[in-house]
Amino acid sequence: MKNISKYFFILILAHSLSAKAQQEADTLVFRPSLSLGYDLSGLALNLLEPEVFMHGASLGYEWRPNWIAAIELGNMDIGVQRETHTYEASGVFFRAGLSYNLLQDNPRMQGEEVFLSFRYGFGTLTHEAPRITVDEPYWGSVEGSFEQAGYSAHWAEIGGGLKTKLFWHIYLGWDLRLRLMLARNPGSEMNPYYISGFGRNKGNSAVMLHYSVYYKFPFGK
Length: 221
Fold this sequence. Notes:
Elements: H1 2-26, E1 33-39, H2 41-48, E2 52-64, E3 67-81, E4 85-101, E5 113-136, E6 140-167, E7 170-186, E8 194-195, E9 199-200, E10 205-218
Antiparallel strand pairs: 1-2, 1-10, 2-3, 3-4, 4-5, 5-6, 6-7, 7-10, 8-9
């Protein structure tokens, strides 16, 4: 009986040591990484709304496991030609914040991300309406214009998404974000058609889907 008990104790101990060794082997040695991304959603937006041109790039730095600091920069140009009006706008935007990867470190999912994101955003633009035509039933057509003016806005973002490896150091990812307006600084009575980095100017909130491609620069071997 003692020999059987001793045998089972040795088996349990061996299994525990084996599992611990396997767990240690599966544990990744963390190395900081830098990623450069391009937002493809601006190209998709241009297909839906040809008068809107928007480009965005991002820089992400994972300085500790699962925590990524991010900076996003971009520009926007709009040219609208209608029978009743002409509208032009040009602007830039800036977003900065953090993303947190919900996946645990695992060699089989190295580089994969399911994340939550938090951002502060700022956008500024200049816009004008060189021609506005209003048809009056009694006075006929009346033409006017809005001179060039500035506009800026601050907002907060919260969202989530995923990033997956395609090949080598190339990744593809998407994330859905809710934007909440914090403050506006209108330069005139004319409201912008789009706010740089925020989206269509329809209220104090906006939802945007981002689809991006990334190149990851790993530090170390």
